Amino acid sequence: MRFARFALLLACLVAACDGSTTQAPPPLDPPPVESSQGGDACSETESEGAAVSRFSTDGSCLPGDVMILYRCSPTGVPVLRVSSVAGPAQFLGGPFAVAVETLPANVRLAGKSHDAEVLIADPPSPIPPPASAANPPFEGSPEPRTEPLVYVRRAGVTERWLRLDGPRSRNDPPIVWLIGDSILDGGRDAVEAGLSEWSVTLDAAVGRPSSSGVALATDAAEQDADVVVMELGTNDSAPDAFRDSLVETLDVLRTTPFVIWQTAKGPAEGTIIPAVNETIREVVPTYPNVAIADWEAFVPEDALQEDGIHPDDGFERLESELVLPLLAEWRATLTNGGATSCGREVVREAA
Prior knowledge:
By secondary structure, the chain is α+β, with helices and mostly antiparallel strands. It folds into 2 domains: about 40-165 and about 335-350, no CATH class; about 175-335, Rossmann fold. Helices cover about 25% and strands about 20% of the residues. The protein contains 9 helices and 18 strands. The chain has helices at about 1-15, 180-185, 190-195, 215-220, 240-250, 275-285, 295-300, 320-335, 345-350, and strands at about 45, 50-55, 55, 60, 65-70, 80, 90, 100, 105-110, 115-120, 150-155, 155-160, 160-165, 175-180, 200-205, 225-230, 260, 290-295. Helix 6 (about 275-285) links the parallel strand 17 (about 260) and strand 18 (about 290-295). The relative contact order is 0.14. Mean pLDDT is about 85; it is low at about 1-40 and about 135-145.
C-alpha cells in the first residue's frame, strides 16, 4: 500500500512537470504518502555546506528525490528539483525568478516547507498558432509545447521560477542571439568579448522598435539558439503595440531553452517606458523559459547621458555586466556546475 501511494504521488508530480499534454492535468492536490519520517525531517538542514529545504504534503514529508530546494552556497542561486518522468525537472530562483502579483486560477499547492510553498499551474492543451505570411512556420520547426508554471512563495513574495530545460541537447559551443537597439549596440564590444566561448549573433540597430524583433527571433529559433536575449521596447510608441510584439516574440521562442527580456530605462514623462516595463513584468511570468534582466534597476542615473536613456561615455560595459553573469550561471548549471554543483550529493543524502 505504501509503495502504491508513493507511486501515485510521483505520477501526479511528474504530470505537473514533464510538459505532457496527452492527458488531463492531475488533481489539484497530490494524495497523501505514508512516511516514517516526522515533521522534523522537513525542516531546513545543511548538507556539505548546502542549505536544504524538504517539503511535505498533507503532513507527510516528501522524499528528497521527489521535491527538494537547495542552495549550494550562501550567495548561490537557489534550485528547486521536482521529480519528472524524463528525469528530474529543475527550476532556478534568484535572478532567474520573476515576481508575480496574480496567480493563475488553476494553480495548486504541490509542497510546503518550513518557510516556502511550491505551487504549480498545469498547462492547457496546446493550440498551435496559425501560420501567416508575416510569420510562416519554418522547416523542421517543433510543435508548440506548453509547460507548467512553477512558483515559489516565501515571506509573502511569490515568484515564477525559471525552468532549467535539461533533456534538450545543447549546441557546442552554445548558440546565443542578442537582439536589440542602440542600448545593446553601444555595449556591443564588451558583450562580444565576454562571449568568446559562445557562438554569438548580435543584431542591434539604432531606433529599432520591438515589432522588428519578431522576425529576428524567428531566425534565432530556426537556428536552434540555446539562448535569446531581447533588448527592445525603448523605441516603441504605443503600449498595446509593444504588448503584441512581446507576446508574439515569446510565442516564437517557446521552445528556446532560455530567453531573457531586458527592461528599459528612461524618463517617465514623454515616453512609454514605464508602460513597457510594466508589460514586461506582467507578461514574462506567463512563460516558463523567460527571465528578466532589469536594466531599469541596474543602471544608476549618473551613468546616463542627458536624455536619461543612453549610457554615457565610460559606461559602455553596463550592458555586459548585466547580461553576461546570467548567461554564465545558466550555462554552468547545465553541466552540474554553479547553482547545481551540489545537487547530486544533496539529493542522495535526502532521498
